[in-house]
Amino acid sequence: MPRPALQHALLGVGILCLLAATLVGGGGPADPDYVHHVEVASDDELAYGLTYDASDVVAYENLSARGRTVFDRARADSPYVVGNESATAPDFSYTSDHVAVGQGLYPVRYEGTVYSLRTERESGDFNVAALFVGIALRGLGIVLVVFGVLLTGWRRYRRGAS
Question: Which among 24, 148, 149, 160 is least surrounded, fewest beta carbons within 10 Å?
Answer without folding.
Answer: 160
